[in-house]
Write a structure and sequence with these properties.
Number of domains: 2
Structural class: alpha/beta
Number of helices: 9
CATH superfamily of the largest domain: Alanine racemase
Oligomer: single chain
Distance between the termini: 39 Å
Mean pLDDT: 88
CATH topology of the largest domain: TIM Barrel
Helix content: 10-25%
Strand content: 15-25%
Length: 426
């Protein structure tokens, strides 16, 4: 379906296609391309870029990024299906995750995937057995958990006991345990030290640590490394107005360090790779919502929306995404696009709640918001990453929100996830 939207909004303002019901996520593919262009400009060349589907596995988003040259990093059967649905070739898929069921590996192998990341000697042996069952050979990146951590990170991924990665000290002490099996060949290293770093110096320090670890392990393993995946960590605004951070000196800094530590990288020996989900998709999305109720409770203004933690921010309480303190753009009359509040209007505090039958369904206890009325349309900006797919969508059984994909001023898709109960084979 294609529908023209009149008067496309500027970057900071939400865009509401006429007649779209709420709640609804809107994803703009043009902004995905803009984010990709920015990120590539911060990375050294040559290097590969993986898109981490966990941020937003919508097939149109995945297909757009693959068309721009991104490979797909998946970590579940559902993400694998999303990548294949988006026509990503199996040869461009890296299957990761700290624990994989035999049936999940079998399914990936049957689909043609041959590149995996493993986190332990058990994972190597499991992958080798699966490849033997399928009469094929596979390659794997050995994920590493080095000591220490990265300052300035929204979420540290290493340096503590973790399901992610084999300890660097153990790899150094026992390299023979990690260097391959009959059907599974070590292809390289996978390092992902932290995520959501907005400050360039801190991000560069994180990658510097990864490069140093890769150099040390390259020497200890004493086998050719075809790939060194340095991971990601690129920050982005979440559910609040703001622009993507810039890292103008990062590419030159990393190129110099790679020249010293892995001198063949400019000839792809090893091939250097990076990963991103958040940076590539955060600013492409917004969540549209309507006000259901406004009341005063014990002296506090309470605004109830038609969306809540079931559609956005459900994982924030588990520290898996930043704590939610969203910006709400609006208000406006029903059936028209939301706009920023008039400058003369002074916002006042309000408790922002969703429709779920639990007091936990609260986005903010005291959020500055202009006067709103039931039926007003509001929007939460920068929700293209870790929005719907990091929520509690099944909790209390409300319908999933509409997902509308636009490309500039054109609507290219509008649909909704549904959940059904099917008979089990066992």
């Amino acid at each position: 379906m294609s529908e023209t939207l009149n008067h496309p909004a500027p970057l900071h303002a939400p865009l509401a296609p006429h007649g779209v019901s709420t709640p609804a996520y809107l994803y703009d593919l043009d902004r995905v391309r803009q984010a990709h262009h920015k990120l590539r400009s911060w990375l050294p060349e040559p290097s590969d870029l993986y898109y981490s589907l966990k941020a937003n596995p919508h097939p149109d988003v995945v297909a757009t990024l693959h068309a721009l040259g991104c490979r797909a990093e998946v970590s579940s059967p559902g993400e694998l299906d999303a990548a294949l649905t988006a026509d990503v070739p199996p040869a461009d898929i890296l299957y990761t995750g700290p624990g994989k069921r035999d049936e999940d590996i079998d399914r990936a192998l049957a689909a043609g995937v041959r590149d995996f990341a493993v986190d332990s000697t058990w994972g190597i042996n499991q992958l080798d057995r699966a490849a033997a069952r399928h009469g094929t050979n596979v390659t794997y990146l050995l994920r590493v958990n080095p000591g220490g951590g990265s300052r300035g990170a929204g979420l540290r991924m290493t340096g503590d006991p973790s399901a992610f990665g084999a300890d660097a000290d153990h790899i150094t002490a026992h390299p023979e345990h990690y260097t391959g099996r009959d059907h599974a060949r070590l292809d390289g290293l996978h390092l992902y030290l932290a995520t959501n770093i907005t400050e360039e110096q801190a991000l560069g320090d994180s990658f510097s640590e990864a490069i140093t670890v890769a150099q040390t392990l390259h020497q200890a393993l004493n086998v050719p490394l075809r790939t060194v995946d340095l991971g990601g960590g690129f920050g982005a605004p979440y559910a609040r107005e703001g622009e993507l951070p810039t890292y103008p000196g990062l590419a030159d800094r990393l190129a110099d360090e790679l020249d010293e530590a892995l001198p063949g990288w400019r000839q792809n020996a090893p091939r250097v790779a990076f990963e991103s989900g958040r940076y590539l998709t955060a600013t492409c999305g917004q969540l549209l919502t309507r006000v259901l109720d406004v009341k005063n409770s014990h002296g506090q203004r309470v605004v109830v929306l038609d969306t809540g933690i079931n559609h956005l921010g459900g994982m924030a309480g588990m520290r898996r995404v930043p704590p939610l303190n969203p910006h709400l753009l609006g208000p406006n009359p029903p059936h028209t696009r939301p706009t920023p509040a008039p400058p003369a209007e002074t916002p006042t505090p309000a408790m922002i709640c969703g429709p779920l039958c639990t007091p936990l369904d609260m986005w903010a206890r005291s959020h500055p918001l202009p006067d709103v009325s039931p039926g007003d349309l509001l929007a939460v900006p920068n929700t293209g990453a870790y929005g719907l797919h990091a929520s509690l969508v099944l909790f209390l059984g409300h319908p999933a929100p509409l997902e509308v994909v636009t490309d500039g001023d054109q609507v290219v898709r509008s649909d909704r996830l549904t959940f059904t109960r099917s008979p089990s084979d066992t």
